[in-house]
Specification:
Blueprint (H helix, E strand, L loop, with lengths): L5 E6 L3 E2 L17 H10 L6 E4 L5 E5 L1 H11 L3 E7 L5 H13 L6 H11 L5 H8 L9 H9 L5 H9 L4 H8 L3 H14 L3 H17 L4 H5 L2 H7 L6 H16 L1 H17 L6 E4 L8 E4 L5 H17 L1
Helix pairs in contact: 1-2, 3-4, 4-6, 8-10, 10-13, 12-13, 13-14
Length: 317
Amino acid sequence: MPPAFRSSLVNLQHINFQDFSNSLTPEEAREPSTALVESIARTGILHPPILREQGRTTMEIVSGRRRLMAAQQALHSISTICLVLPAETLPAETLAINLEDTMLRGDITVVEQAIFFQKILVHLDANEAARRFLPALRLEPHRHHLHNLVQLLGLEEHLLGALHAGRLHDGVARELLALNFTDRLSLYEVMEILSLSVSNQKKITATCRELAARHNTSVMALLCRPEVREILDPRETNIPQKTARLMQWLTEQRFPRLAEAEQKFRTFAATLKLPSAVTLSHSPSFEQDQVHLSIPFGNREELRRVWPLIANVLQTE
């Protein structure tokens, strides 16, 4: 049965803005965005917030906190139209309504999902919570999904904020959870400085963990090495250049033999003094000793004129 909403003009002073019991938003993201404030300044609140009666005059927010705050800022509103639930509405149902309202945006984040399940598990057992709500999130109704989601809340607040905002990939976040506090923050600091893509976040996490284990050191100690600081610190180097240099350094540390072979190949290529347009390449990972010489031609006629000379050289070989 649908909830028993009633529409009401609510005085904002009667709303308990300090009650976050239904909030699914991490602390860093609770303020309304500039875009939301500007939208409400132009057109008012188009989607009514949902409240629940707490007492004779007090109401708690079920959903729409940022809309209400934006209305205060943009319109200096004293009251606004809201949907109100009766006081007897169970906490599990108010959370379920907020989840439904959040999903209507179409972009519910993994952090919001995690916060929802952390709170709903206070009121429902894991099996019922999985059965009722995981399918709506397009997940199989298995308890391990609940564990995997709630586990993310072990991250520090600013990492949760980054995960919520999409600056940190959820798979990488789970990898970071396996690290200790200092290693986790050191690694994320580099990701933040360089604004790393998802693929580079995954690469640097896997590489740093492997190198730290191999050398019996910490990720923090690895990233504090002078070679790394020399890459990250220079102001004259832009972010893409720093990223490329760091990834190259990490690859060289991870695969020293491959790096040595690459350096020898570059030295060999330099001795040939090839024209700038001509390229010399080796087989992938130097699996074979073959090399490939690439010579560009302006058109087919140019190749036709030069080919007899090339064919003659090849025959003499």
